[in-house]
Structures are given as structure tokens and as C-alpha cells.
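INFO worker-7 received task bundle
INFO bundle size: 2
INFO processing item 0
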Amino acid sequence: MLRFRLFGIPFEIGLYFWIGSALLGGGFATGPNSVALLLIWVACVFVSIVVHELGHALAARRFGVQPAVELHALGGVTRMFGPLLTRGQSLWVTFCGPAAGFGLFLLAFAVSRRFHPGATDRQLYSGVMTPDLVVGAAVRFLLWINLIWTCFNLLPILPLDGGQLLRNTLGPRHQKMTEAVGVFVAGSLAAYLALRGSWWNAGLLGYLAFLNFQGNPRALPGGVRQATGPER
């Protein structure tokens, strides 16, 4: 278990976070550069999720709560200790996570346009891993992670930020409607991906569909949560 503080916010990273990140990057485990590319990928996932959760945590701290971040196999969760947030405050705190991720995407895009650290597939998988190639791989991974993950995370599926934005918009009296939307969207995407042979992604979305169908949002991994324990 790795623990540290960033901007005064406690972070806790479990072993399964590293395992899950490595599994997501399993497609790079080919060729002579497989180990190097996998390490770069895991580092980029780590940076991207830390930035995403910092977006939640720093926004929450502005409203007088003490945030704490945990990174796990399916991403991260920001827990908030202190006064309950209003619906508008919750919307803002939830929105700031994807906004921070998209900001990192724009930064990586600016670097790619200014310094052109490009790398072809042939260079990545079989070329000598020079510093320029490492930077090129990192920029490519950061662009992909922070665009695709931000878009995916905004889907209206609990506990993704899109699902939480929908829940906060509709209000607690319409929790069942939020869950029904999550079941429909996650289930439809799971079926589509299964038909295309993307079994890992289909399984993940099927799992989210099942949890939304259960109707127990506390059992869902990730997201932003108001905690009930003492401040850390």
C-alpha cells in the first residue's frame, strides 16, 4: 500500500491499482520494447487518475470538506469528510474531475504540437528506446487515456462521473431513474462490445450494468462519495 500527500490531500494506492493498470496496457506486451512500454503506460495511467481525482478533491476542499483519495483496480474514489454538499456543489465537484482530465489532454496535445514527439508503431514496438521515443510514447498514451477515459467517464452510468452528474441533476427522488439509465446504457454497450469480440470491456460494462440493476450505489466502485467516518 502506497500512501502520500499531494497539496495536503492524502492519497492511498493499493496493489490492485497497479495490476489493473498493467492489464489495461496488456496490448503493449509484445516485441522487444514491451516492458518499457508497459511501464510508461502504467505511469501515464497513474498520472492521469491522480490529476482526475485532484480535480474532485481540490474542488471539494473549497466547500469546507476534507477530501481523501483512494486508487483501486477500476480507477479511484474521492471521499469527503465534513459537511454535506448541496446539489449544486456536488455537481461542481463531480464535474471538476473530468475537467481536470481534459485539461491534461489539452496539455499533452499542446506538447505534441509544439515539440512533435511523434512515434510510429514500428518505432514504439521495435525501435531503440531513446529518450525521444519515451517522451513520444508518454504523450501518445496521455492523449489517448485522457480523451477516451474522459469521454467514457461521462457516460450516464453509476458510479462514473456522468452517472453522478445525472443523479445530482435529477435529485435523490429519481435515484431509480438514474439506475435504470445506467442499466440500459451499460447493458447496451456491453452487448455491442461483446458482439465485436471486446470481451474485457464488455465484461466491465456488464458488471456496471449489474451493479446499477442491484440498486445499491454504495457497492459501486469509484466516484465521489460523502464519507461518514472521522477526518484523516
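INFO item 0 finished
INFO processing item 1
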Amino acid sequence: MNDLLNLINSRASTKAYSETMPENEKIEEIIKAGLSAASGRNLQAPIIVAVTNKDVRDKLSAANAAIMGVDTDPFYSAPVVLVVLAKKAAHTYVYDGSLALGNMMLAAHAEGLGSCWIHRAREVFELPEWKEWLKSIGIEDEVEGIGNLIVGYPKDKIPTPKEKKSGRVFYVK
């Protein structure tokens, strides 16, 4: 099996992180992979906000937890949150953002980091205070939150993937 297929087949979501901040070079490579994802009509709708500031990360986590209705950290203590937003003007923006998230999960795995896609980005970035925050960092376009990719060094080890369910492929010959 080639390296890419091995990487795809060995990736699993990480749900426990160490406090160690990943190196900037690794974060940049992950972002580059997200920006390299295919997009409908090459409109390149996804926007990535790299949150490494602990205070902002914690506020984002608290907003996510409030929407979820829990008082725990939905980001599993990961030190980095890569928020994927996408410009609504592109008709394929949700799909394009999802592809960016997928590429970034694989890139994180390739860099020896754990990652996990955390939902509720849409709901968080519909809140007036978070819309204002986006404007404060320079995002003026009408965007939708697609997902939060948490990234960091696993607390223990990178988990192994769970067995794949059968009966999900149908061949028409």
C-alpha cells in the first residue's frame, strides 16, 4: 500500500491532548493542506482561522460547550483550533469546507499530531459576538462555520482506527 493510502487508513480522531503547543511549521503545513483542497469551480471558499491564543481558544470552547449544553471542554484540551469557515457566495461552500477539514486531518496525522473535527462552528459563528469577532480579525465576507479542527500532540498515543462497518459499498457492473 502506498504512503498516502496508509495514512488515510491509519488516521483516527484523538480525544485527549497534551498541553504542548505544536510547532508553527507543523500548523502551517496543516493549513496549507486545507487550502489545497479541491473546491467547486475553484472558488476557494474556505477560510481558516488558526486559534493558538489560549484565551480565545477557551472562549471559543465555552461558546461551543454552551451550544452543546455541557460544561466540559468540547475541544478535549487541544491547544490549537483551526476554525474552517466558508464564503456563502460559493454554491459548494459546505462541501469545500468539508474537504479542507479532511485534508487537514490527514496532514495533522502525517505531522505526528492528533486531530478531531468538532461541530457547532455554524452555530457559534451565527452568534452576534462571534460575528463581530470575525470582523475584528478582518473577515468581512458572509461566511458560515463549517467545523473546528482541534489539533495537538496526543496525551498518550495516536489512537488506532475503529473497524469499518460492512455493507456500505454497492457495486453496479
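INFO item 1 finished
INFO post-check item 1: The mean pLDDT is 97.
INFO post-check item 1: The helical segments are 3-10, 24-35, 54-68, 93-110, 121-124, 128-136.
INFO worker-7 idle
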